[in-house]
Amino acid sequence: MLGLIIRRMLQLVLLLLGISFIVFMSMHIAPGDPANIIGGPTATKEDIAGIRESLGLNKPILVQYFDYVKGVFQGDFGFSFQTKESVSEALMSRFPNTLNLAIASIIVAVIIGVAAGIISALKHNSWFDGAATVISLAGISIPNFWLGAILILIFAVNLQWFPVGGLTEPFWTLEGMKQLILPAITLGTGSAAMIARMSRSAMLEVIRADYVRTARAKGVKEKSVILIHCLRNAMIPVITVIGLNFGFLLGGTIITEQVFAINGVGRLMIESIAARDFPMVQGAVLLVATLFVLVNLVVDLVYAFIDPRISFD
Question: Is it the case that residue 31 has pLDDT exceeding 80?
Answer without folding.
Answer: no
